[in-house]
Recover the amino acids of this structure.
């Protein structure tokens, strides 16, 4: 009988405040969708870092005869065979070095033509202008500075470059988008909490006579507050459900179909459905508990009977 009464009161409350309940559902859905999207974006960045950082190399570029006239570091002339041999031997002694591959000037020119053959500058570049290099793969890409410090000032070395810097710009952009999504999520969350508190306040005021009678016949505070808390939790649960649907639909249309980023960006290792599904219980739990807690706090202030 008590459970039936509580459920009937929930239905009454939702019907009386239908517009505000709808606003609560929408704001909770949007804030939780942004929250879930931010979590997935963070996981995507982490996945891409693990995938790409394992593939990037540290490149040690050697001086050629043209560099001797234009670059101060190469003022002693082009790199010699003895210098290359010594650098390779020193690399082999380093524990962090996984492998060393040599790229000749002709190979560098061939790769350049493959990548930039359509550009206007491609016709002005000749093989003798390209640098020989060692492509160094590290066990831990984070230790790039060890190689840079050891070889950047050596005779015959023009520069030491970490390909990871190219990817960092992309990852910084994605992290910036993630922070922006979290800021918008926080704003939407504040709006949702304000709507929940206001909805509970209006609902408690509209039913002050019923709650007063319940108090007179000996009903406990928790029993009186339960319908209001359940109303907020029910609205939050619906909002969490909508947020889950938005996350699933977003993953479906952005990556698999619609924009089909997985087909257009073959080099990007996108997160799978398992990562999305793993976030849904958390979204549902927050959608259920957050409004209920907000309603409980609000009732302590506004439910005076």
């Amino acid at each position: 009988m008590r459970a039936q009464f509580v459920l009937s009161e929930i239905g009454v409350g939702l019907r009386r405040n239908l517009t505000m309940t709808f606003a609560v559902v929408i704001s909770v859905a949007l804030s939780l969708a942004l929250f879930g999207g931010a979590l997935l974006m963070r996981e995507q960045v982490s996945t891409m870092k693990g995938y790409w950082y394992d593939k990037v190399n540290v490149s040690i570029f050697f001086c050629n005869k043209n560099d001797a006239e234009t670059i101060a570091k190469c003022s002693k002339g082009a790199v010699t065979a003895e210098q290359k041999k010594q650098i390779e031997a020193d690399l082999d002694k380093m524990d962090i070095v996984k492998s060393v591959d040599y790229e000749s000037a002709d190979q560098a020119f061939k790769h350049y033509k493959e990548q930039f053959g359509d550009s206007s500058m491609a016709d002005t570049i000749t093989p003798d202008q390209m640098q020989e290099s060692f492509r160094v793969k590290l066990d831990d890409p984070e230790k790039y500075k060890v190689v840079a410090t050891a070889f950047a000032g050596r005779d015959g070395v023009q520069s030491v470059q970490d390909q990871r810097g190219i990817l960092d710009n992309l990852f910084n952009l994605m992290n910036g988008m993630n922070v922006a999504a979290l800021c918008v999520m926080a704003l939407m969350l504040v709006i949702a909490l304000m709507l929940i508190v206001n909805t509970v306040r209006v609902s408690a005021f509209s039913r002050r006579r019923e709650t007063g009678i319940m108090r007179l016949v000996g009903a406990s505070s928790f029993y009186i507050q339960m319908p209001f808390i359940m109303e907020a939790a029910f609205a939050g649960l619906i909002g969490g459900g909508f947020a889950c649907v938005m996350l699933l639909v977003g993953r479906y249309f952005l990556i698999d179909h619609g924009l089909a980023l997985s087909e257009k960006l073959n080099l990007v290792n996108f997160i799978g459905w398992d990562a999305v599904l793993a976030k849904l219980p958390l979204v549902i739990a927050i959608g259920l508990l957050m409004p209920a807690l907000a309603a409980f706090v609000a009732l302590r202030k506004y439910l005076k009977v």
